[in-house]
Amino acid sequence: MELFLVVAVTHFIALLSPGPDFFLILTTLFREGRHAARCVCLGIVCGNIVVIGFVFVSLFMLGQLNHGILDVVKWGGTIYLSYLSYRCFAYARHADFTPDTQMDSGGQKVSEKLKLLFYGIQSSVLNPKNILFYATIILAIYQPYTAWKLCLVSVWMVCIVLFWNLWLIHLISHKRALDWFQSKIKMMYLLSGLCFAVFAVVLLFN
Fold it and tell me: Which terms in the GO cellular component ontology are assigned (predicted)?
């Protein structure tokens, strides 16, 4: 129980730290609405499942994380974060946020939903910090926990990420928050673009 509490607290602190996933959800919410942001959330969850699966496969088959794959993820993540930064700065030049229409638009085509889902998967998978974080957590519980306990903890972590991100969307979509964001939309895009750029630089030189 003590070990699980340590895992729970560590995971919660990590969720409180804004990362690429948070800013991707934020910019998607502003640009395409609540339903689109939820699709991104689902993609992020799928990406977390892929990351956790990769950690388990690496431990089972190799006994350690594959550094070659980490290098590929590092460069892919740097390029992807740079692309997101560019998109945010481009959006800032033509910032237009109308919450009455944007927040309730749920008519995306299947292809658009799949694209948003893929954006979320990319954000999660192409972030080596996700791999290192989940690897650290799993390594801490790998020996003392049985297989079914490892599965339960993994499912718990994925569900927490999903509920946390959906709660953020609900919170940001509140009328007072929307009114504030409407007056600060250009600044928020610029801030998001700057954060993506910083994430890319830190990832490149880490």
Answer: plasma membrane
